[in-house]
Specification:
The structure holds two protein chains of two kinds. By secondary structure, chain A is mainly α. Helix content of chain A is 71%, strand content 3%. In chain A, β3 and β4 form a beta hairpin. Chain A is flat, with a radius of gyration of 25 Å. Chain B folds into two domains: 258 residues, Rossmann fold, CATH 3.40.50; 105 residues, Nucleic acid-binding proteins (OB fold (Dihydrolipoamide Acetyltransferase, E2P)). In chain B, 29% of the residues lie in helices and 31% in strands. Chain B has ten helices and 21 strands. In chain B, a hairpin with a 2-residue loop joins β4 and β5. In chain B, α1 packs antiparallel against α5, α4 packs across α5 and α4 runs parallel beside α6. The chains are: A mainly alpha, B alpha+beta. The interface between A and B is medium-sized, with 21 and 28 residues.
Chain lengths: 307, 375
């Protein structure tokens, strides 16, 4: 009502120009996302609710059969195989992400305390391994951990592994592979958080009666939390869906959700079941992200953790 | 702010003014500082402190003054416990604290960069020290409210740290240290990042706070003007050695050596060529002094000089030509040519005639204003 003095045509001309401007700047991105994310996801969603055909391809009619199969109900009644795969995926994600945090935190801190001209070189050293193909690096670990290698012999000698079993293939090898692979994704955001930190603040905390441990906990840790959470997201989500590492290092006992899904598509086994598995992964990821945001908001003292 | 005062009274009903005063007297006795033979070396050949002996009295506003790299900040960090001396002892209130870690010292610091915690609100910043010492939340709140009233923080306590200006940060940093009621407050160039106007305003405020609390303040600065305005006593440091300790007037008017004189802003230093009793022979000419010292340098402070028009014969009269005049309103600064030498003079502007550049004048100085010092 306040604009009644301005001629309607002038107002609408301005709005049209603004809308056109918005359309031109946003359209390319939106188009990209629609074609390569929204449509395939919708297709996947549709496939998940279809029936498995004789060659593993989706057919009508719509059914919930895939989700029943995913939950473990087969021709021979219920079996826990898929449930184990889901739990193994969650467990591997949790353990490897936790280990990555424990290994990356001191590395990132150490790099941030180095002389300014050494820091880029140290960061480069952290990142360089990931320039090699992931499959090749994983084959490298297979050679390092196979039975008869020094590491395997050591583990056998110490009684961690049954004789002649070697460290690979095993769940342990998968965890190791995941930690190794995702370490740079944690070091980089943590380093960024440490670099912003003013060392005088540590001294200020000590000056204000905080013991070294409490100075770390109250002055340093909360300030690195946004970096830590960003790192957790960068590590945990791809680790949860990881295919190559459990495929190569896990053997039959180390399968994760990603392998389950891939098998349904690759072997021509069951597209609708694979699609249902992919949707399950998507839902689990969203739940994880949501939980991270909540944790971040609570621990970050109200500071929004952008993920 | 009046409702804060009311809340303060309600929150701490047990503390009566008399009790507070008694507690304060006790605290004052605990706040003397005694340094004996402090040495500090960084790496192999950087000597930061080379034998510092110093006693700071309770309730003093004490300033460590010197150029960068003179060791003043190192000394302050040793007082805070953030740096450990290689040799020597340090005692506060008669208790040896040489090996006490920083978090167990009743000493708080206002850092040069302020070092406020960006992840905490201003209120949480202020309460940080109290929380670390394990005070219950109600008492923390009461004391934060009290300090906010005292430093006149107003609604700043409800802001985020990144919403504060430089001057506001400075005052929060001061309040964050003072709220712990330490025996000694250390200030590491706390005003150096502020512009001139704000700086002189905060100098006055800081001085007022110190006088009202009667707390021992150890202040580090490289600005001799600031040191003179603020301090009860000044220690001038150079090369990790204390050059002179004394009240501002003494350090300014009777510097012990050429370094102190130059650092306090004196340029009129001349070698004494020969001495016959009280008569000194200098490049400016012969001058009579009351100073009986054996120093080989003559110091003439610019503000002790008088200018007479034309050539006037007399004792301690020197013929000169005006080389430069800087008119500053309240006073004027002159560069005078006396023979081959130049002499700086500062004259009060009290409606007198101001000589112009090129004028012939006579410089006059009282024998009592001439002092000699060692190189």
């Amino acid at each position: 009502m306040a604009y009644t003095g301005i001629t309607p045509s002038a107002r609408s001309r301005g709005m049209v120009r603004e809308a056109r401007h918005l359309l031109l700047t946003v359209a390319p991105g939106v188009t990209w996302i629609v074609i390569f994310l929204v449509l395939p996801s919708a297709y996947l969603m549709g496939v998940a609710f279809m029936t498995n055909g004789p060659y593993g391809l989706p057919e009508m009619p719509l059914s919930l059969e895939s989700f029943r199969r995913l939950a473990g109900f087969g021709f021979l009644g219920w079996s826990p195989g898929n449930l184990y795969t889901l739990l193994r995926s969650l467990w591997q994600t949790l353990v490897s992400t936790g280990l990555v945090v424990i290994v990356a935190y001191p590395i990132a801190y150490y790099i941030s305390t180095c002389r300014a001209r050494w820091r880029p070189i140290m960061l480069l050293l952290v990142v360089v391994p990931s320039w090699t193909n992931q499959v090749i690096r994983t084959f490298g670990w297979m050679n390092l951990l196979a039975p008869g290698t020094p590491l395997s012999n050591l583990a056998e000698g110490l009684g961690f592994v049954a004789p002649n079993m070697g460290l690979y293939p095993s769940n342990f090898a998968v965890t190791l592979g995941l930690v190794y692979n995702f370490l740079p994704f944690m070091v980089l955001p943590l380093y960024a958080a440490f670099e912003k930190l003013d060392t005088a603040q540590v001294e200020a905390a000590q000056d204000l009666f905080a013991s070294p441990v409490r100075a770390f906990w109250h002055a340093v840790f909360p300030q690195t939390l946004p970096g830590l959470l960003a790192g957790v997201v960068l590590v945990a989500i791809p680790a949860f869906g990881m295919y190559v590492i459990p495929e190569l290092l896990g053997g039959g006992k180390g399968m994760m959700l990603g392998n389950l899904v891939a098998n349904q598509f690759a072997g021509g086994a069951n597209w609708p079941l694979g699609a249902a598995g992919a949707i399950l992964m998507l839902i689990a990821t969203f739940i994880g992200l949501f939980a991270m945001r909540r944790i971040g908001r609570r621990l970050g003292g109200g500071e929004e953790v952008v993920i | 702010m009046s409702d804060t005062t009311a809340a303060d009274v309600i929150a701490s009903p047990g503390v009566r003014p008399a009790e507070e005063a008694i507690a304060h007297e006790a605290a004052r006795d605990a706040s003397s500082i005694e340094m004996t033979g402090l040495h500090k070396r960084f790496g192999r050949d950087t000597v930061a402190l080379d034998g510092v002996d110093l006693i700071i009295e309770p309730g003093e506003f004490f300033t460590l003054l010197g150029p960068s790299g003179c060791g003043k900040t190192t000394l302050l960090r040793i007082l805070a416990g953030l740096e450990e001396a290689d040799h020597g002892r340090l005692a506060i209130g008669g208790k040896d604290i040489t090996e006490v870690p920083p978090h167990k010292r009743s000493v708080n610091t206002v850092f040069q960069s302020y070092a406020l915690f960006p992840h905490l609100s201003v209120r949480e910043n202020l309460a940080f020290g109290l929380k670390m010492r394990g005070l219950p939340p109600e008492e923390r709140e009461a004391r934060v409210a009290k300090i906010a009233e005292f430093i006149k923080l107003g609604d700043l306590v409800d802001r985020r740290v990144d919403q504060l200006s430089g001057g506001q940060r400075q005052r929060i940093a001061l309040a964050r240290a003072l709220v712990n009621e330490p025996d000694v407050l250390l200030l590491d160039e706390p005003l150096s990042a502020l512009d001139a106007g704000l700086r002189s305003q905060l100098q006055v405020e800081l001085l007022r706070v110190q006088k009202r609390l009667g707390m021992t303040f150890v202040f580090v600065t490289h600005d001799q003007q600031e040191a003179m305005v603020m301090s009860d006593r000044i220690a001038v440091l150079n090369g990790g050695v204390i050059q002179q300790v004394g009240p501002p007037r003494e350090v300014y008017e009777h510097p012990m050596n050429a370094f102190v004189a130059r650092f306090m802003g004196h340029d009129n230093l001349y070698p004494v060529i020969a001495r016959h009793g009280t008569r000194l022979s200098t490049p400016l000419g012969d001058l009579v002094t009351e100073d009986a010292g054996e120093g080989g340098l003559l110091l003439i402070r610019p503000e002790t000089l008088d200018l007479l028009p034309g050539e006037v014969a007399g004792e301690n009269h020197l013929p000169a030509v005006v080389g430069e005049r800087l008119y500053r309103g309240s006073h004027a600064e002159y560069r005078l040519e006396v023979g081959e030498s130049t002499l700086q003079a500062t004259l009060n502007n009290r409606g007198r005639h101001l000589p112009d550049v090129g004028d012939r004048v006579t410089v006059s100085v009282a024998p009592g204003d001439l002092i000699t010092l060692s190189e």
